[in-house]
Records
---
Amino acid sequence: MIPETSVPPPGPSRWQQIRQRYRIGTRAITMVGSGLAAFGLLVAMLLVPVPYAVEASGPTFNTLGEVAEHPLISVDGTETYPNEEGELRLTTVTSAGGPGFPVTAGSVLRGWLAEDMVVQPAEAVFAPDVTEEERSQAAARQMASSQQNATVSALTALGHDVPAVLTIVEPVSGSGAVGAVQRGDVITDLRTADGEQPIDTYQDLSDALAATAAGSTVTLTVDRDGAPADLEITTGDDGQGGAVLGVYLNAEFDYPIDVQIEIDNVGGPSAGTMFALGIIDLLTPGPIAGPHVVAGTGTITPDGQVGPIGGIRLKMLAALRDGAEYFLAPVSNCDQVVGHVPEGLQVIRVATLAEAEQAVQAIADGSAADLPSCAG
C-alpha cells in the first residue's frame, strides 16, 4: 500500500509576487488623477490673460554713445567734442498688459515677487479705448516732440537763437484765451506791462510770460489769414510765479545747427532731459560729467523746464543696474522717489535744464555731495 503524500499547492510565480508587491489601489489612482488634473488646471490658469499691466525696469542708453552701430546723437554744421570718458544714460520702462500685449497670471505672479517689476490694473496704465496701433503712434509722436524740445532747449542754453513760427492750435478749455484766439493764428508780438516784445523764438514768449503776473491782461498780436490782429487775453497761472496764455501751440523751429537723434524701439517723452544734456556735452569742450556715469529722466520743454514722468522707481533700479552713480530726477517726481532710492545711487532733484547742467558739472568737480536731493 502506497502511503498518501501531501503535495503543497503551487505558490505564486515571481511575476505575480511583483504585481502584488507593487499593486496600486483604486484610491491611489484617484489621487494621482486628481493631482494631474489640478496641475493641468494650474498651468492653464497661469497661461490665461488677466486684466493687469506689468511694468519692468527697461534698458538704459548712453546718449553720448552708439545704438545699433550709429551715434545716438550726431551734429552737423559745427565743431563737436566727442566724450569717451563719462556717460549720460537715459532710462526706460517696459510695459505689458495693454492692447496687443496681454499678460498671463504667471507673469503677474512673477511681477508681484520681483523687485524690479510693478503690477497694476491695466486701466491704470493703458487707456481701455486705445488700440495698440494708436498707442504706438502716440509714443512715437511724443518721442519726436521730446527730441525737438531737447534740441531747442540745448541750443538755447548754449547761446544760440532758434527762430520759431508759433501757431495756435486751440485755446485751453476754461482759459482767458477762449473766444479770443482762433486755430491757425500765428503769434508775432506780445504786449505786457513791461512793453511790447516781438516773438521770434519760443524763448521770447517764455521769458515775457515768466515776467508777467498771473491774472494780467496782455495784448497778443497774431497774424490771422495774412492780416495782423490784436487779441486781449487774461493770463493764467503757471504755478511758478509767472503767467500762461492758455493756448496749445504748434512750433516750427529753424535750427542753426543740424542735430539728429536716432534711437529705435523707444517711445514717449521722458528722455528729453537726457537728450538735451547729451547735446550740450557734444557741443562743449570736455566731458560735462567728468568720468562718471550719470543717469536720469524727465520731459523737457523748449524753454528748458523739466517735467514729471512715470515709472521712476523702476528707472532708478535700471540706472543702478547699468552702473550709474548718480540719477537726475524731476522735482515733481520727488514724492515717488523718497523712501525708494536703491543703495549706491545718489538722486539729485532738478526742475530745469540749467539745474541739470549745473548738477552734472558739480559731479565732475567732485562736489556732488552738496546737490539737492528729493529728501530735502
---
Amino acid sequence: MKTVRYTVLSVLALLFVSPLLFMISTSFKSRTESARTPPTWIPEQFTVGAYETVLNAADTPVLRWFLNSMVAATANSAIVVVTSALAAYALARMEFRGQKVVFGLIIATLFVPPVILVIPNYEIVGRLYWLDTLTAVIIPTAANAFGVFFLRQFFISLPKELEESASLDGANIFQTFWRIVLPLSRPALATLALLAFLTNWNDFLWPVYVLFDPEMQTLQAGLSTLQSANSVRYDLLMAGAVVASVPVLLLYVFAQRFVIEGVSRSGIKG
C-alpha cells in the first residue's frame, strides 16, 4: 500500500515540477534551440546569454523592476499583517455591539471580484496623487479581509487562560495582545505575510493601470513588456520568468514550516 501511495505522490510531484524544470532548462538554451520543435529537455549547449540580455538591456531594466516588486511586496505584506492582526484580535476576543455584523460584512467582501474595484481604487489613488508611485501598489490592498478571517480563526484557537492570567497580573488588553498573543501566533503571522507577499508580487493587472514610467514598473508588469517586444524569444521569456520565480521559491522554502503549522491550527475552532 505504501509503495502505491509513494508512487502516486511521486508522479503528481513530477507533473507539478516538470513545467518549472522546463522553464529553467529553456532559459539556458540558445535562441535557436529554445524555439526548436520538438523541444529538448536538456540544453545541448548551456549558455547564459538570455540572462545577460535580460539583465543588461537598456529598455528592460529587470533589476529595477525586481527591486520595485521587492519593496512593494514587502511593505504591503507588513501592513497587511499589522492591520489584519489588530482587527482579527478585536473580533476574536473583544465583545461589542454589532460584532457579528462587522465580521459578516468583512467576510462578504471576499465574494466581491477584485476587478470590480479597479475603477474606484484608481479614482482614489489618482485623487491622492499616488499614480506612478509604488504607494499605489502598496496601500490599496493593505486591508485584507482574508487576513482578518485567517488570524481570527487562529486567535480563537489559543487558550483563553493565557490571556486571563496576563490580565490578573495587571496587563491591559494591548499588552496581552503584544506580549502573549502575537508571540504565540508567529506561524499564522508568517503564513499571512507569505500569502500577502505572493499576492502582491504576482499582481499584474493593477500595476499596469497605475504605473506608467518604465523605471517604476513592477516585475510582472515589466515582463509583459519583454514578452510583447520579444514574442518569439522563448529563452528571454524563460530567463525573465526564472528571475521572477527565484525569490518566491526561496521564501517558501524558508517559511514552509510556519505555513504548515499556521494553516493546520487556524481551523481548529469556528
---
Amino acid sequence: MFDIMKQAQQLQSRMQDLQTELESAEVEGRAGGGLVAVTMSGKGEVKKVAIDPSLMKEEEREVLEDLVVAACADAKAKAEALAAEKMKAVTGGLPIPPGLGL
C-alpha cells in the first residue's frame, strides 16, 4: 500500500512538472498559406498574432477574421497534441483517473 501511495505522489509531482512545461512551451498555428500565424502556449493561451500586411485592406476584413480563427484552431490542436504527447510520456500510456489530468 505504501508503494502505491509513493507512486501516486511521484505521478502527481510529474504532472505538476508537465503543467509547468506546457505553460512555457509554444506552438504556432498558421492559416491562409502562412498569411496569419498564431503563437499559443501549450496550455492554449494565445501569446501572439502575426498578420501579413497584404491582408490589411478593408475589403479583406472578413477573410482576415476567418484566417485568425483558423490559425487559432490550428494552434489549439497543436497545443492539445503536445499536451497529449507529454501526458503519455509521463504516464507511460496508462489512463489517468479524473481530476489528475491537465
---
Amino acid sequence: MRTVQAVRFGGPEVLVPIEAPEPAPGPGQVLVDVSVVGITFVETQIRRGVDPWHPRPELPYVPGGMVAGRVSAVGEGVDPGWAGRSVLADAGSTGAFAERVAADAGSLVAVPEGLGLPEAAALHSDGATATGLVEGARIVPGQWVLVEAAAGGLGSLLVQLARSAGARVIGLARGERKLDLVRGLGAEAAIDYSSPDWSEQVLRVTGGAGVDVVFDGVGGEIGRAAFEVTARHGRFSVHGASSGRLTAIAPEQARRRGVEVLGIEQLFSFRARMRPWLEQVMAQALAGRVRPVIGQTFPLERAADAHAAIEGRTALGKTLLLVRPRPSRGGGSRERSVPVAFGQ
C-alpha cells in the first residue's frame, strides 16, 4: 500500500511516498480504509525534530495520528457491527499517512450521517480542543474575546464557538485573505498582527478596556503583547506556540494585573473529555451552528506540499490529505470517491 514516510528530520522535503506492507488488525483493532488524513501544526515540528513536547519518533516513520474512513475489517474481540461504518480513528502518535491503518477499536468515533468525512476530520482534534478551551475560559455574553491565528483550523472554530457563547470577537490574522475569512466567520473586528500597532487597534476597538479573554496559540512576542491588552480580571488561555516559544507570564505579573492564566498544562486534562466534546461539536456542525473551514486539500503523495503550506503560513483553516485506497492485495476493490466540501 502507499504510505508517506519521513526519512530523516528536516523540512517538508523529507516526506517521501513509499510502498509498505498491508496492515492487519490485531486483537482489539480494526482496519480502516483511509479517505482523509488530518494534519496538525505540531506534526510539522515533530518532523523537523524541534517539538519540545513529544518524543522523537524512530526514523523512518509514517507521520500523522488521525484518519477518517471506513472500517473494512475487525480484529479479534471487536464488535463486528463496526464493519462498514464511517469513522474517525486514532492511529497513535504516528502512522496515519497511509492508505490503510490498523487502529484500536477504543479510539473509534462514529461519523454521524449527514456529516462528510473531510468535515469530520477537520473537527476531530481542533473542534474538540476548541470546545474545551471555550468551556474553560468561562465566557460571559457581551465580553470581548481575542483569538490569535483566527484563520487557522483551531482559531476559526474558536471564533465561531466564542460567538455562539455570546462574545464579541476580535480575530488576529495575517493578510487580507485571512482577515476576510475571519470577518466572514462573524468576528466583530479582524486585525492584521503584522501591523506594528495591532495591540493599539485592539484597545481602540474595546474602548480602551482591553479584552476579557485571550486564546493564545501563537506565543512569543504576539502572545506577550496579547497579555498586555488583557483586561483586569480577564482570562489568558494558552493552547499553543506556533511562533516556537510559549508566552511566558510570571505569576506575580498575572496577580498584579488581576489576570487568570490558563496555561498550556490545561491541555493535559483534556484527553478524558475529547470524545464527548468531539461528538458535541459534530452535532453543532450538523445543525449549522459551526462550520469547519477546509482551506486546502492535497493527495496523499503530496504530503510534503501540505506541510509546506502549513509552515509557510499560507494555509486557510484546516489542511487535509485525501486518499483513494487502491484495491487491497487480498482482492476486492475498496476504492471510493471522497465527498469534499470546502468551508470557506
